[in-house]
Recover the amino acids of this structure.
């Protein structure tokens, strides 16, 4: 656990006074109890103290804050819903935490142009509900949608269980309002479906993890809401067959809205945690494949179901379960959605490795992970977005791990990354780099690419005040 | 016509000698007849003389050339298939034209991971044919696919008739090999479906029009080839009804693989040029809407056809024509594909404005264009990718236009851009900025955005040697 306990305000008085003028007294907070909650996110048990929490209400206030902090060289860490798992919102160099929570308005939904404009502090689930009511759909909410913010989703280029059909956050971002570290407010793109004008600043900011600018508004492209859904669950005796079935589904072109793989190790930990009878959890079954099918007509859904069923049947002799009601779907997905909770029960924590590898490497990757973890005596649970080659590889260890255990886990992480990178993978498919994965950037990127990224960071943020210690600097 | 006639080699002898060492004598060309063809592209009748044509065979040779040119501050204009219509490949500051034509290998097609690696000088149609043979599909070839290069498609973020279903080039680029102006060779991304590691250099280079680096290899994501296609053609008495039908198709979620609108003015010019009976070309019909439907099963295709047909019937009493064979499709699309040729017949030329506007602005945009053109006595043909709000607005004028006519056309262009920009549009949906549209960048972008783009250009290309005079500098 990395932490320091000194929480005295270390900023010049003139800065604090100016912050109060910009945001109003109420939104400049030094109460240490409140600050404590803003010094952590969902990344392990990391906590960092800092000086002042500000909750600006407009892009203009944020511009004022950044100008001030630039002048005084004060670190500013932007914060969304605090759902990040790589430490992107942690104030590692003290200074100011800038919460976007007051930028929570849905500015407008356009039902002809199929787009929505939202402030970046809107909770993802609220966005989804609002556009759903207008007959539209934001199809790639992350699993953290109930509390993550739209701005954080964009900053991390968040993935979704449905990314295999619909892509990641990036594919829906048309335009961003961003406050640059120097205090300029810009729009990066335009609210149109095709745009070949100038460098694509929209995509440069998307996934830049709050180190190039603070996103204050997001324009998302939307799709008409798909009306017909069902889930399928298949159990496999052999992991190899489950992986082969997934490849066959990709080849078919069916395009399910989820293709999740759950390996034996993840099944076991979740089943033990839930301690109840669960569908297709037996001694012989060593892998689950879960599909969501989403189509715009009942006919299409039935056709997709038959095709997907026929493919799965080629690779398993077990029953294939179908769920159409909400209750049935919850039952099929219950094991999958309890893996995380299971891994943290009993005074444990986990390190979530969210590598992405080419689909052709999926099976050898899992076998290699198992071998590495076995060699070091580390418990692992492998599951996730298999069709995209993006697996959560969760290393479980004691919440109060001693140095030896921490070291063992670190060694396993390093070996897993080495294998993934040597086989065409990347160190993050959807969580981003943040603080936690920064040490591995030089494993993935040669010096020339890293230098280019650092130069871009310096260009946007010459004094390095914005979210320092993250991604590349 | 902007041109200069001086075509003497103006480079230091040591530079020419070093180029010969790098590329081999054969690929360093000074023959003025050959050079002439490389001094123009498809942009109006523009031609620019330059000093030397080089045809390197590898990324390493290109790196050597760029290092040399950086040292001697010599402009380098990269060139693909020469199909650009905004002058992106024109050597406006003389120096070297660097043709990518020898980088023409399809490096590999991966049928499990659904991606293809190609050198940037591969002709787009050759790429499409090769992946089709492997059961896969690159779904967004531009209309120039028969001679445009893959690298040029990426550099311009080319659009396609099928972009309304599949997106633009950008959505398929996973990874790029790029030679930076300083001579470094980098890969920008990784060959995986999800990637949240570092700044997205891949998307920064995509659409950067050869001013940030020279693309030498492209990794495209592919999709399983859709197996069932048909075309529909509907004629409308009123343009307004045609536009309303297009909006209704978008609302339905059918997702056709083309939704083209052809306005009366474009119909007339193409019909006169073809001088033969054409489907649904009558006095009463003032707009055509052409759809391509592409689905993975016959059932889906029939369902989509019925739905699309029902929507079109709500907005027109005219017959709706269907084409399933290649020959039938050619007949339905004949008028659409002859508009360009029609506009250049009879010693005429055209300026292609490829604005994109929000779909809600499509109808008022066309009416405004008609009014502007009528006021200035300029012939216009409006047609194109209506569902995306991306219309080709072709202003026809005399190939040997006098100054007054050139001025009139320029005035019309300016007024059209003003209207589009004031209504949320952009100056290019798919052609890019290049040389021709650079003067309009400051209309679309406020100073802060433009400054940021210029700073990015300077960061990548400190001496400004790469494709000077384009996009932003």
């Amino acid at each position: 656990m990395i932490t320091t306990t000194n929480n005295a305000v270390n900023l010049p008085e003139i800065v604090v006074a100016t912050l109060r003028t910009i945001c109003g007294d109420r939104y400049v907070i030094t109460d240490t109890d409140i600050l404590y909650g803003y010094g952590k996110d969902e990344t392990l048990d990391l906590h960092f103290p800092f000086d002042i929490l500000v909750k600006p209400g407009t892009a203009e206030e944020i511009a004022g804050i950044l100008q001030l902090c630039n002048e005084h060289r004060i670190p500013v860490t932007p914060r969304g819903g605090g759902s990040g798992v790589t430490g992107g919102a942690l104030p590692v160099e003290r200074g100011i935490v800038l919460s976007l929570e007051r930028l929570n308005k849905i500015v407008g939904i356009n039902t002809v142009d199929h787009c929505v404009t939202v402030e970046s502090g809107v909770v993802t689930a609220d966005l989804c509900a609002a556009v759903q009511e207008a007959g539209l759909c934001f199809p790639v909410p992350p699993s953290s949608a109930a509390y993550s913010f739209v701005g954080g989703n964009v900053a991390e280029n968040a993935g979704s269980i449905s990314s295999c059909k619909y892509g990641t956050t990036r594919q829906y971002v048309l335009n961003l309002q961003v406050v640059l570290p120097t205090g300029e407010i810009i729009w990066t793109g335009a609210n149109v479906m095709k745009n070949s004008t100038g460098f694509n600043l929209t995509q440069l900011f998307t996934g830049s993890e709050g180190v190039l600018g603070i996103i204050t508004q997001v324009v998302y492209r939307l799709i008409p809401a798909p009306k017909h859904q069902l889930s399928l669950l298949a159990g496999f005796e052999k992991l190899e067959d489950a992986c082969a079935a997934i490849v066959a589904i990709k080849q078919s072109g069916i395009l399910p809205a989820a293709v999740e793989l759950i390996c034996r190790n993840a099944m076991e930990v979740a089943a033990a945690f839930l301690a109840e009878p669960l569908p297709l959890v037996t001694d012989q079954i060593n892998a689950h494949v879960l599909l969501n099918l989403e189509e715009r007509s009942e006919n299409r859904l039935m056709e997709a179901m038959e095709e997907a069923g026929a493919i799965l049947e080629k690779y398993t002799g077990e029953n294939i379960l179908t769920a159409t009601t909400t209750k049935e779907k919850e039952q099929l997905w219950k094991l999958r959605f309890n893996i995380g909770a299971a891994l943290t029960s009993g005074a444990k924590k986990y390190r979530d490795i969210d590598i992405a590898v080419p689909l052709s490497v999926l099976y050898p990757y899992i076998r290699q992970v198992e071998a590495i973890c076995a060699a070091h005596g580390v418990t692992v649970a492998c599951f996730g977005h298999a069709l995209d080659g993006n697996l959560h590889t969760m290393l479980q260890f004691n919440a109060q791990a001693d140095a030896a255990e921490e070291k063992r886990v670190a060694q396993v992480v390093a070996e897993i990354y080495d294998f993934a990178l040597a086989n065409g993978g990347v160190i993050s498919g959807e969580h981003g780099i943040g603080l936690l994965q920064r040490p591995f950037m030089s494993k993935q990127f040669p010096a020339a690419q890293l230098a280019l990224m650092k130069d871009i960071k310096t260009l946007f943020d010459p004094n390095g005040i914005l979210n320092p210690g993250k991604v590349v600097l």
Remarks:
- Residues 1-6 of chain A have pLDDT under 50 and may be disordered.
- The longest helix of chain A spans residues 403-422.
